[in-house]
Design brief:
With about 160 residues, this protein is an alpha+beta fold. It is built from 3 helices and 7 strands, in the order E-E-E-H-H-E-E-H-E-E. The chain has a 7-stranded antiparallel β-sheet, covered by helices on one side. A hairpin with a 2-residue loop joins strand 1 and strand 2. It starts with 10 loop residues before the first strand and ends with a strand.
Length: about 160
């Protein structure tokens, strides 16, 4: 699989990179285009949250049915915020989009697994992030890595 743009190199948006790839299938006439956003998130740098949303919005400008990209932005900001608030380390955001599906993954370097929890009435705005991810995504989960974990979600571009 060739992970380069048509002109041979990645497109750079700010400090992130977006890669487009054409993947040939068994027939030469059937091709699908995918794009990938990858961004390193600095330790406790909450400025990364709106920057990640903006970069994702730019990547998803023509993707999915109305409202899907806004849902993707919301869920991405939840995962990025969780990684930056609940760990003492950097994190890495990766978003991969194809015509029918978006997968967003935020990898951190702390092994503690997150759990959705019901927020207390006095909790203010805390405790709702993973509940939103669970409720609004088509699939989500946590994958262990050698060091740390990746929390991910997927959205179907055609779902309403």
């Amino acid at each position: 699989m060739d992970r380069r743009t048509r002109d041979g190199g990645p497109v750079v948006i700010g400090s992130s990179s977006v890669k487009q790839a054409e993947e040939a299938t068994d027939t030469t006439t059937d091709r699908s285009v995918s794009a990938q956003l990858r961004r390193r998130l600095g330790q406790a740098d909450l400025r990364a949250v709106p920057e990640a949303r903006r970069a994702l919005r730019e990547m998803l400008v023509r993707w999915g049915r109305p409202g899907r990209s806004e849902t993707a932005e919301l869920l991405t900001s939840e995962l990025v915020t969780n990684a930056l608030i609940h760990t003492d380390r950097d994190a890495v955001l990766t978003a991969t989009v194809s015509p029918g599906r978006l997968r967003v993954e935020v990898r951190d370097f702390v092994g503690r697994r997150p759990r959705p929890r019901r927020p207390d009435d006095g909790d203010g705005t805390h405790g709702r992030g993973l509940i939103l991810v669970q409720s609004l995504s088509d699939a989500w989960g946590v994958r262990a890595h050698g060091v740390g974990k990746a929390v991910w979600f997927e959205l179907d571009g055609e779902a309403s």
